Amino acid sequence: MSGTTEEPQTFYEAVGGEETFRRLVHRFYRGVVDDPLLRPMYPDEDLPGAEDRLRLFLIQYWGGPGTYSQERGHPRLRMRHNPFVIGSAERDAWLKHMHDAVTSLELPEHLEKRLWDYLVYAAHSMVNAPDA
User: Fold this and answer.
1) How buried is 66 (Cβ within 10 angstroms: 0-12 exposed, 13-18 middle, 19+ buried)?
2) Lower CB density within 10 Å: C or N end of the chain?
3) Binding residues for heme, per the UniProt record (predicted)?
């Protein structure tokens, strides 16, 4: 009897690996560039770096290479976002652009839902300013 067992596929692999996350994050930042609420949070000289950091973080989070932590250490998302005022309006703008990016991937429904549920959770957890 052959004892070969197939390794379970990571979410990263199931959605198409790095190329999928590259498309997701690039599409997201296309929306950010023209967003009057979010754009001021991204200085021109840092926009490409922000795109790289988000892509590497998501790749690592979903089971891909650990390049993010190798380059930047522990994600510490709340600490890294603390310098920015993030209220419900900023969260909702972020989610709007991310939703457009997620749906553009045309993933199978169960994978899209899993990705979207995490992104909604993450966006809510970054809120650090009460609404006026």
Assistant:
1) exposed
2) N
3) 124
Question: Is the pLDDT reported for residue 52 higher than 80?
Answer: yes
And the tokens for 101?
């990016």
The phi-psi region of residue 39 (left if phi > 0; otherwise alpha if psi is between -120 and 50; otherwise beta) is: alpha
pLDDT tens for residues 79-125? 676 778 899 999 999 999 999 999 999 999 999 999 999 999 999 99
The DSSP secondary-structure symbol of 105 reads T
User: Which residue type is seen at 74?
Assistant: H
Query: In whole angstroms, what is the distance from residue 112 CA to residue 102 CA?
Result: 7
Full-model pTM: 0.87
